[in-house]
């Protein structure tokens, strides 16, 4: 099988020193490789300009504080937030969701209230809600999927009641690549007075996101999937919601005044950033946002859409391959091969210099729904091209030969 040349190739592979020639890295949905501008910012921050933030009276620390807060402004601009104060630096999407579960849901929900999730959510958008629901006596409902494996918004419309106080959904599924119509989901949630949290982990690296245009209430994402460092992510929340939320953790930096009798808290976002933050992580995220913005999210989206189409077309010609997710899935192709465990697919592909993910992708309820233990998943990033798709397809053809 030959794969057509990708005319939209972004030609940025040389920016990624950790991708050796001939290695097809197809695991960007797990974590993205880092471009040189991000590596340079990290090396310079630790190697030349390093100091703490928010506390120092010396120039170096004041400069670092400016850089840290400039990163927050860059994030706000990137996702269309009304103010940088609406952007809380967290460890990643997981921490962002836990923060909302504890500080918003944990204080706003009452026994008998309901939370609506979907059947394709990542464990990090399931377990934090279960923990808070159990504590409070709230209930969780699950929106099913359509035949083409997208979140079924018609079903959601029929399920929503005024007992629902929160809807939490993935913008793009990390397994299926299905893209949610966030605006419609928000409209439906708001129609019954519920808030809506969007897990933007897989969306932010591959499409332009404007949180105010989407009209959601909370939006979370991780820096490391956006070509930035690990250990840094963003929780965006509408200012009025953040203002009303109690702190997540106690410690330095999140206070206004501390005495042994009583402590008053800083306003957001500081209230939610106890302790010395991941300073260099924020600077690296800033560089990563600059990097993708310079390429252009629309170009990245078109590029990945072309690669997904090539991969799906080529894989669909192999009889024993079963593809999951909708035709227009964003950057992600999940598949299985009849009679072959996905881990064996991953191991054989590794011998062919093709790195994919095999497993349940932290979405066990989705695997149960599909009645499979795992899938093989190829996911694309800015550095991939038609040669990577061709290597994937050659590898799969070898798998099918080996397993007869
Ligand atoms: N949601 C989705 C859709 C994801 O793909 C991931 C990461 N696989 C997460 C949440 C959790 O992100 P992190 O582990 O960076 O906190």
TrEMBL record:
EC number in record: 2.8.1.7
Required cofactor(s): pyridoxal 5'-phosphate
EC class (word): transferase
Lineage top rank: taxon: Bacteria
Any GO MF annotation of the entry: cysteine desulfurase activity
UniProt entry keywords in alphabetical sequence: Lyase, Pyridoxal phosphate, Transferase
Gene3D superfamilies: Aspartate Aminotransferase, domain 1, Type I PLP-dependent aspartate aminotransferase-like (Major domain)
Pfam family, any one: Aminotran_5
Limits of the Aminotransferase class V domain: 25-392
SUPFAM superfamilies assigned: PLP-dependent transferases
Catalytic activity: (sulfur carrier)-H + L-cysteine = (sulfur carrier)-SH + L-alanine
GO terms classed as biological process: cysteine metabolic process
Chain's role: Catalyzes the removal of elemental sulfur and selenium atoms from L-cysteine, L-cystine, L-selenocysteine, and L-selenocystine to produce L-alanine.
NCBIfam families attached to this UniProt entry: sufS
Protein family membership: Belongs to the class-V pyridoxal-phosphate-dependent aminotransferase family. Csd subfamily.
Protein name: Cysteine desulfurase
Taxonomic source organism: Stakelama sediminis
